[in-house]
């Protein structure tokens, strides 16, 4: 196992690209601690696979260094880095049996036959492959084939890290839940450094202790699921984590209040102070579940028009319009009715300010 550092890593697939703005990865500085369970989360095209391939050595970055336990491995070939990688689609030998496929990474490294037998059995048990252990991979279902790929990634217990690139994409949704939890259990037992790429926030939160959020080639926040939810440091994190995502409203400051068109929203004094120091386009951010919805005027309430109410069973999602800007609230019960007026209260302790997409302060 290893601690892995990326130091000022940037990558462009077009060798002549001059501006960092056009790079697929833009000067990333990040540490993957030894034994950590990480999710690398972000939308399609934000650079997750590029980052993973730079860690494993499949790609040499245009700039910067990759360190394993402090040792510079930037130019080292992938097979010498001692990394296991599991991809989105099955990577295996169709003509081999399940057991032979699982044994392959060990045989390749000259592991003793007894040890190979033991590990193959262990991994097959973990992934419920024991029933098909002597079957050829070619005849198995897509789910089983991807489980074999996972097994090939997990079978060695001496790797520096295991990298998973959206490994459950082809798996049936029902089995996905089980496998996700299984991977978490395997991490807890083995404490091997694991990096799990996904664009699915639920998958990221189930698997990881720490989530690394990427957006447009940058790491915008690293934190626990709770920290990302409660203290998003970038607009994208507020919008991407949580369902529905955070509300953002263009605003201007006056003293300790934010003005959203004609509406006046009180802020806590620290937030207002940080907002006054910030430069750039100001926006107020609040999570739908932190808003209060009242059917009559209350102190500090802001009048809105109720547009839509969606029943999610355990909660109601209320879409409102505040002077032309949409505000969504998530509340346990509904009092308002579409077409009527309601009053929103923005509790100051949950009301944040963002300047040019970044949390102020
Ligand atoms: P996805 O979730 O869709 O796999 P991702 O977050 O993994 O996306 P990358 O595959 O790392 O993103 O791609 C980052 C950027 O680099 C994208 O703009 C993509 O088009 C570009 N890119 C990726 N691979 C190549 C390549 N081999 N040649 C040129 N451009 C590439």
Describe, in plain words, how this protein is organized in 3D.
- The chain is an alpha+beta fold and about 350 residues long.
- Helix content is about 25%, strand content about 30%.
- The chain is built from 9 helices and 22 strands.
- The strands form 5 sheets. Strands 6-7-8-3-9-10 form a 6-stranded mixed β-sheet, sandwiched between helices. Strands 16-20-17-18-19 form a 5-stranded antiparallel β-sheet, with no helix packed on it.
- Helix 2 packs across helix 3 (about 115-125) and helix 2 runs parallel beside helix 4.
- The protein is elongated.
- Bound molecules: adenosine-5'-triphosphate (ATP).
Number of contiguous helices: 9
What's the level 1 CATH class of the largest domain?
Alpha Beta
Question: What's the mean pLDDT score?
Answer: 93
The CATH superfamily of the largest domain turns out to be P-loop containing nucleotide triphosphate hydrolases
List low-pLDDT spans: none
Strand content: 25-35%
Helix content range = 25-40%
Would you tell me which CATH topology of the largest domain applies?
Answer: Rossmann fold
Q: What compounds sit in this structure?
A: adenosine-5'-triphosphate
Assign an overall shape.
elongated
């Amino acid at each position: 196992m290893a601690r892995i550092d990326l130091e000022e890593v940037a990558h462009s697939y077009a060798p002549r690209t001059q501006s960092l703005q056009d790079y697929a990865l833009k000067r990333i500085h990040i540490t993957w601690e030894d034994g950590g369970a990480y999710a690398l989360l972000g939308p399609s095209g934000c650079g997750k696979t590029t980052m993973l391939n730079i860690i494993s050595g499949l790609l040499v970055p245009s700039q910067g260094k990759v360190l394993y336990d402090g040792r510079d491995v930037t130019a080292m070939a992938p097979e010498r880095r001692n990394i296991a990688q599991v991809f989105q689609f099955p990577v295996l030998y169709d003509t081999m049996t399940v057991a032979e496929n699982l044994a392959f990474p060990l045989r390749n490294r000259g592991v003793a036959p007894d040890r190979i037998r033991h590990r193959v059995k262990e991994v097959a048990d973990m992934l419920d492959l024991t029933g098909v252990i002597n079957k050829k991979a070619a005849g198995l279902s897509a789910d089983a084939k991807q489980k074999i790929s996972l097994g090939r990634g997990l079978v060695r217990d001496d790797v520096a890290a295991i990298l998973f690139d959206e490994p459950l994409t082809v798996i049936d949704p029902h089995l996905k839940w089980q496998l996700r939890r299984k991977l978490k259990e395997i991490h807890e037992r083995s404490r091997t450094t694991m990096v799990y790429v996904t664009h699915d926030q639920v998958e990221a939160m189930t698997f990881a202790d720490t989530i690394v959020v990427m957006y447009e080639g940058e790491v915008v926040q690293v934190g626990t699921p709770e920290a990302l939810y409660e203290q998003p440091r970038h607009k994208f994190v507020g919008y991407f984590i949580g369902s529905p995502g955070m509300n953002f409203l263009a605003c201007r400051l006056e003293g300790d209040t934010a003005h959203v068109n004609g509406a006046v929203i009180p802020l806590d004094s620290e937030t207002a102070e940080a907002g006054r120091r910030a430069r750039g386009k100001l926006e107020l951010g609040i999570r739908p579940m932190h808003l209060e919805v009242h059917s009559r005027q209350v102190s500090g309430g802001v009048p809105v028009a109720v547009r839509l109410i969606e029943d999610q069973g355990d909660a109601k999602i209320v879409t409102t319009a505040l002077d032309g800007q949409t505000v969504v609230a998530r509340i346990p019960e509904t009092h308002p009715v579409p077409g009527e007026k309601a009053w929103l209260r923005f509790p100051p302790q949950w009301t944040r300010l963002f300047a040019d997409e970044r949390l102020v302060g």
